[in-house]
Amino acid sequence: MSPPAATRPDARPTRPLALAEVLLGVLLPFSLAHFVSYLYRNVNTVVYPDLVRDIGLDASGLGLLTGAYMGAFALAQLPVGMALDRYGPRRVQLPMLCVAALGGLLFARAQSFEGLLVARALIGLGVSASLMAAIKASSLWLPAHRLPLSTAVLLAVGGLGAMASTAPMQWAIDTVGWRAGFVGIAAGALAVAVLIAVRVPEHTASPSDTRLSDMVRSVGHIYCNGAFWRAAACTLMANGAYMAIQGLWLGPWLRDVGHLSRGDAAQVLFWGAAGMVAGSLAWGGLTDRLQRHRVRPVTVCGLGMLAFMVCQGLMLLPQSPGSATVLAVALSVTGTACAMNYAIVAQTLPPQLTGRASTSFNLLIFLAAFGLQWGLGGVIGQWTPASDGSYPQAAYRAAWCLALVLQLPGALLWLGQRPWQRAARHTPAHHETLA
């Protein structure tokens, strides 16, 4: 006999939660996990001079080290998606954050490139559920039409993590050193795990009795779904380029091409991350508002993607410190529009597949980001650095051109979907029409 609902570990509170309680008691703790994820992801764009000095990394090694986060993150996506749909976001997020904390501690103690590489991969594994768990929680606690807006809020909180990885992290490095800084991030990951354990209730829909074999089969069906690919392929490489550039190569570009000092570059990255927060909220709010006028979310997402590509094109030109600052912030603002596609992809499939659909998409994005982050470093590394470790503008121009060429097919696919056509006034109960 099943235990009473009040005593089951997956039981929902006896009274329904108000919207404010959902936001503060459910989505905020999960979004803080995404904050930690972004802090870990982007911190190397500030700490890279210390890694070059202490470990002796070149551009290719730095790209591989930073990309190890992306690679481990990507490989974990399908198991994470199945676990989210089977066990719920709370039960998955807790142990994963502990792994992220362990990776941070090991990174702080590593004395070799190999040690840093293993630790960085553990960090990527540990935070691999952060955004997807938050999206899964949103799909459980909020109505479907609020997913684009809730995703924007989650991404905005992640942007705060990106902000923390810039000037505040630079201050921490100057004060206590980069190793102690990583210890602090690991402590933050553990603190968020405790908050989720204490504050977040289980949802009655979280656990699933679906067999693992059926879940694996369903992932195969997702990758054979035409609606999934039509939604995912448009911004796949744009999302990967955004992560690769904003998460690592924007900092070196500001120093080498924009001629900013390390401290000034950290300040620009801070304002760029602030632009990420504002951009996430603005794109999400705009999408939510325009849906009332039958403007499809994919329209707004694609326009932002085109603006993001224009910013990359302008970065090919010679730069002054002022123009480089403006472009860095603009890149951060426009690139966040591509992330709206997470919600669009999630809407292409039934709600019970949200976790698997989101992580199936995320797997593709992080594989693209891993390849681009490492590949851009390989391209830049074809040029001989100056005595101060800087690379010429030609190196970054070649890398940016590669990124743009890879993004062009997605932009053409988006145009081929005729995004200017309005959605039906009364959307039928068919998941392919929701985007």
UniProtKB/TrEMBL annotation:
Residues 26-422 form the Major facilitator superfamily (MFS) profile domain. Its main location: membrane. Keywords: Cell membrane, Membrane, Transmembrane, Transmembrane helix. It comes from the Bacteria. The keyword GTP-binding does not apply. It is found in: Cell membrane. Gene3D superfamilies: MFS general substrate transporter like domains (1.20.1250.20). The keyword 4Fe-4S does not apply. This is MFS transporter. It comes from Hydrogenophaga atypica. The lineage of its organism: Bacteria, Pseudomonadati, Pseudomonadota, Betaproteobacteria, Burkholderiales.
